[in-house]
Amino acid sequence: MRIVFATGNKDKMKEIKRILAGIDAEVLSMKEAGVYEDVEENGKTFSENARIKADAIYELLMEKEPELADETIVLADDSGLEVDYLGGEPGIYSARYLGKDTPYTEKNRIIIERLENAPEDERTARFVCAIAARLPGGRKLDTVGKMEGVIAHETAGENGFGYDPLFFLPQYGKTSAELSADEKNAISHRGQALRKMEELLRKELM
Fold this sequence. Notes:
This protein has helices spanning about 10-20, 45-65, 105-115, 180-185, 190-205; strands at about 1-5, 25-30, 70-85, 125-135, 140-150, 165-170, 175. The protein is an alpha/beta fold and about 210 residues long. It has a single domain (about 1-205), classed as Maf protein, CATH 3.90.950.10.
């Protein structure tokens, strides 16, 4: 059995492979599986976008290697940052916020700037991750994970990526980018959603 995760993000794949290490299946990125197409994510929620991506990559893989239909599971995620003071922005547009090619250092700077006058109790935010699975025979699974925190007044940390340096976790006294890989995987939105998915997949593969 192989699990193809519909992402080309190397940092994300490191997290995914670490968390799914206990499943008796080969875990591949879609590029490692030979699929390079970009899928238009035109859903209105994280879950809709994850489902669109999982279904699209599954169909592409089946066109390419139909003989592996009974051995292929496709997982896809959509994740992002919701800032309450900004009405939930950037939300499902997190990767494209302020322009797809805008570096996250600039995105983080702008978000912190936009919250310059926000009261401390209104700086709440969360990371959300939705994961969709497409299994042999057309079966589908869906999970969601969330990590609550606040927007920091300045970025800190080198361990994360994306919005991690501005996402402060009061219970740890540090940003998501200052957590170790094990600390982050234990509480992160993606870690939560993946562990839920891992539990569902174990039942499917028994």
